[in-house]
Every structure is written in structure tokens, then in C-alpha cells.
Amino acid sequence: MTTLWQSLLIALRALRVNKMRALLTMLGIIIGIAAVIAMVAIGSGASKMISDQISSIGSNLLLVLPGSVTSGGMRSGSGGTQTLTYDDARAIKAECPSVAAVAPNVRGSGQVVYGNQNWSTVVYGVTPEMVDVRDWTIIAGRNITQSDVDGATKNCLIGQTVADNLFGGTDPVGKIIRIKKIPFTVVGLLGRKGQSPQGQDQDDVIYVPLRTAQRKLLGSQFPNVVGSIMVQAKDAEVLDKAEEEVTELLNQRHRIGPNREVDYTIRNLSELLAVTEQSSKVMSILLGAVASISLVVGGIGIMNIMLVSVTERTREIGIRIAIGAKKRDILLQFLTEAVLLTTCGGVIGMLLGVAGAKLVASFIGWPTLISVNTIVIAFAFSAGVGVFFGFYPARKAASLNPIDALRYE
Amino acid sequence: MDEVVRLTDVVKIYTMGEERVEAMKGVSFTVHRGAFVSIMGASGSGKSTCMNILGCLDVPTRGSYFLDGVDVGKLSADALAEVRNKKLGFVFQGFNLLARTTARQNVELPLVYAQIPAAERRARAMEALERVGLAGREGHYSNQLSGGQQQRVAIARALVNRPSIILADEPTGNLDSRTTVEIMSIFQELNRQGITIIMVTHEPEVAEFTSRHIIFRDGLVISDQPFQAKTAVPPAEVQQ
Predict the structure, then answer these.
(1) Tens digits of per-residue pLDDT, A115-168?
(2) Are B112 and A315 a contacting pair at CB < 8 A?
(3) Where are the domains of chain B?
(4) Which of B50, B80, B96 best tests the A interface by mutation, with the highest count of A CBs <10 A?
(5) Residue pLDDT, tens place only, B99-130
(6) Which H/E stretch holds residue B64?
(7) Domain of life, per the record (chain A) (predicted)?
(8) Does the B3-226 domain belong in CATH 3.40.50.970?
(9) 8 Å CB contact between A262 and A256
(10) Contact by Cβ (8 Å): B207, B38
(11) Model confidence over B202-220: pLDDT tens digits?
């Protein structure tokens, strides 16, 4: 039996002899693989874009909101009461083992002034953890600190949109702005996040220390109350556990029992992520499936040409058998030829697919995601197509009768 | 003298659809090492069938065929392939070289299937080409060679695995008379070196260069005579 290497050399020679035909035969596989790669790249790029958008809220997050209260038979909606406190937040942080960080916050809005510019924006009172929980980066200056919170200092972080509107291109760090006429020092500038999945501009924001907001800016009647608490679990696996722990703790602290309705709600933000990811995954599988039909068509093209080639080379096969080639040798030779065709087609298709994906992506502004996995699978698949569709012609060649084959004109 | 070939009562029956064709009706003969035999007969006499059986491309329906003492009729397909590879060398009427392949690559082909390493293949192919007077032509493609040269490449290919017998099926059928003599002189030279040659031909003047004539008619051997072979003198100027 000849070695694989010999078969490869023979196959290469055979393909070189018929370059144009080899190219045309490969075309089916080229288009098939290119389509699969491009579709999967664009599909997973789109799904990555969506999940990036969602995770820009922050990852592994629970959102604890005040619940409704019943007063004289009337129930207020969610958030219609102020039941969560800074102490709740600290208790969650201290007592729930699955929780990594807790970011209580209060929300208000106000007019901000710097020099002759002014801008209306959302002001949050936060603790330093907010930056971690929401995955913000600070591109200039520093984060606010716990002592800023404890001391209710008039320092603030501003988002890119606010910076653009108040400062134009100049460096905002160290400048004094007035929020609702109270002077604040800008200590840090937040990196750009872009739109939230709901289409809100996440960069149109100012963060001030929680205590400062509670006492000086928003003038709440209960100074310890917070608007919501963001809870970040240690990782995605313990998110549900973290939810249970927070629920248990808050039930205890708020004395929730048979006679007292639950006065808070917990939202699990990763559910949204999971649903969206699921739907975009289905989308890219669908695209991939449609594209792989063209692969199958390409494979049939290979089989067709290989059959023609076997007929054409009947005499050559006869010579080889007469000279001492075994059935396996002939089988291997034609199989190698088919696999060589499809893998060459696969490689060319891969390059075209990657290029195509990049091109499409640059037109519609989506990111593309080409994983090593896709490439490996496409390559293996094209080789598999070669084996599958090459087998029948190769077997036909191997089972030729040498006497007839030698006499074949 | 030891026997290379022993055919005993070989019968070969083909069925073509409804029709049964009895191509060989009980053929027996032996060939000794170093012989130069020609098998003659009209078309349909069974000489080609006999050649296919001698060449292990086909097996007898009945009877036995011993090649170098091995009962070839009892071998598997793979074992037959090995016998063809190691013990037999074929020379065909239509040369049957691989197209778009150099002379050396053609000659190397049996060695490829014998799994001989590349360096040794090359050396043995060159040696075989030299024996048939084609040294220096190893890089030529089949279509760049004349008919006589192509047949010499085919002879080199038949030689290269040092076979027990060379089987030649009408080796001069496609050649002019001058080239025919050239090829026959090569066969005679190889035969002098001890190689057994069995040749099928229907041209008596070609058979004259061999030392034994077996004549077939209607699937039977009707004559088997030794012959005083004529020496083939190649044309004065050697074709290069």
C-alpha cells in the first residue's frame, strides 16, 4: 500500500494537470465555506454587539427596587415607596456571601453649569462601588472614595456627554461645576459606554457621593433612603444564589411575614441577557444552516467531477492496477484527490468568507466575530465533504476490472 | 532448468449476458527460466485470455497456474496485486504510459506501489532507463518521446522491479518495422541477460526473433515448437 504522502503527490499532479477544472470544481466548496464563515461571523458579531450592549449595564447584576405599598386599599406601583436604605445596602454587602459588590444609589436631575455653558442631566448619588458594578472606566482623574461618601464632599464624576456639552474638548478634571447652583469639583471623567439596550444615553450622567446627594442635592425627607440598590454577584453561577440570599436578608430586615407584604422587588438583569443571546444564537444557527446547504451542493459537484475523472482516467487506473496497485491504493488515490479539492476549496473559501464578513461588517457597522472554532469546523467540514462525496467515485475506480480498464478507449 | 510458469488444463469461461464464451478450453504448457516465448494465433483464439491469466489480471475458471511455484489461482486480490508488482512486468501494445508524467516517474511507478524509498526508486529507475538506452531522457514527458522511445520506457518500467517474467502484449503492434527491430533487439539483449519473456503477437516476422512458438486456435494450443531465433540487428545509427 502506498503511503498517504505518495497519494498526496499523485493527487497534486492530477489536479495540476487540470487546473481550470479543479478550480471550477472547488468553486462550489469555496462558495459554501465562504458563505458559512461569513454568515456565522456576521451572526455572532451581531449577537456579540447585542450582548455587549446589555452587559454595558454591568454584569451579573441584581437590581433591588423599592416595592409597592398598600395604603387604604390603594396599591402604589413598583418604586412607589421609599423602603430601601443605605443600611440595607451595607447589610447585603456584609452578610450575603455570594455578593461581590453593592451599589446603593439615589437618582435626581438637575441643571449643571460651567462657565457660560449649561446642561440638564441625571445626577446619581453613589458609593465608590458603582464604578465597578456598572463596569465604568475612569479615563481621567479618580473615582470618588468612601471618605467622599462619608464626608459628603462636593466632588463628582461626569459622563462623556456631560463633559462634551460643558467643556467641549478641554480637560474637565479639577474644574468646578455647579449642580443646582451648588459648586462641585470634577474629580474624574467616565469612559464612554454608548447607548443602553433601551436606547438611553448612558454617558449623560453625573455621579456625586451618596451622602452628598441625600443631604445637599436632592433634599430627601428621609436622609438614609436610597432609590435602588445594585447588587453584583461574584460570578454568573452564583447569581441565583445571591438573589436568594438578598431576598432572605431583606425579608428579615423588613420583617416581611404573613401580615406584611413584600416592600421591594429584585430584578435579575442577566435574564434579559440570556433571552437576547438565545435569540441571536438561533439566528446565527439558522444563517449557518442555510449556508451549509450550498456546501452540500458543492459536495455533489465534487462527486460529479470525480466520477467524470474516474471515467476519463480508466486507462490510467488499469495501468496502475496491472503494475501492482491494490484496491486500497486506488481508493486512497481518488479519495485523496477529492479531499485535496475540498480542503483547498475550504481554505480559499475561508479567506473569502473572512474578507466578505469584514466587508459586510464595515458597510453596516456591525462587528464581526471569527472564532478559531468556526475556522476549524469549516475546515474539518470541507474535508468531510471530500471524504463523503469522494468515496463513491473512488470506490468505483478501485473496483474497475483491470482487463477492461486497459482496453478502455 | 527450473520452471517459471506451469499451466495445467486451464479453462476460462466468460459469461456475457446469456452467452457463455469458452475462451480457453484446456491449455497446458510450461515455461522455463530464461526462455523467450511467443504466443501466436488469430484474434479470438484465446491468446489474449491466456495472457491475462499469465499476467494475474484474471484467474482460471478451472485448472491451475503455478507462477514461480505458487498456485496463483488460490491468491486473494491483494496478493495478486503483489504478484503483479513483484514478479511480473507488463509491456503493452499501446505503451500505456501515464500522460503528462516524465519517463523516470513512469518507470518509478511499480516501485511506488512496492513502497521503495524515493532515493532508491530514483536510482533503480535511472538504471532501468539506461538498460533500454534512454539515459538522459529521464526528464522527458511521454508526449515528448517517439513511439519507440515510449515503448522502451514501458520496457524499463517492466524491468524495474526485477520481475520473474516480462509479459509483452503485441509490443510492436504500434511501431514501424525499423523501430520493431530496435525493440526486439532490446528484448533479445534482456533475454541474454537471463530474463524470461513471453510475448503475444500475430506477426510471424516478429515471432522470428523468439526461440519458441506457441500457436493458439479456438482456445487450444495447436502447436508448440522450439525455433531458431533470428538475431535482431538494430539499425546502424542508434536512435537517440
Answers:
(1) 888 899 999 999 999 888 888 889 989 999 999 988 889 999 999 999 999 888
(2) no
(3) 3-226
(4) B96
(5) 888 999 999 999 988 888 889 999 999 999 99
(6) strand B62-67
(7) Bacteria
(8) no
(9) yes
(10) yes
(11) 888 899 999 999 999 999 9
Where in chain A are the domains?
Answer: 4-53+275-407, 82-262
ipTM for the predicted complex: 0.90
Q: Which residues of B touch A (CB under 8 A)?
A: 52, 55, 57-58, 77-78, 81-82, 84-86, 90, 92, 96-101, 109-110, 112-115, 157, 161
Residue of A16, A323, A403, A406 to mutate when probing chain B, most B C-beta within 10 A: A323
Residue A216 Cα to chain centre, angstroms: 41
Amino acid A72: pLDDT? 65
Residue pair B151/B137 in contact by the 8 Å Cβ criterion: no
Q: Is the pTM of this model over 0.80?
A: no
Distance between B76 CA and the closest CA of chain A, angstroms: 11
Gap between the Cα atoms of A110 and A181, Å rounded? 9
Q: What are the beta bridge partners of residue A156?
A: A186
**Residue B221: pLDDT band with limits 50, 70, 90:** very high
The string of DSSP letters for B77-109 reads HHHHHHHHHHHEEEE-TT--PPTT-BHHHHHHH
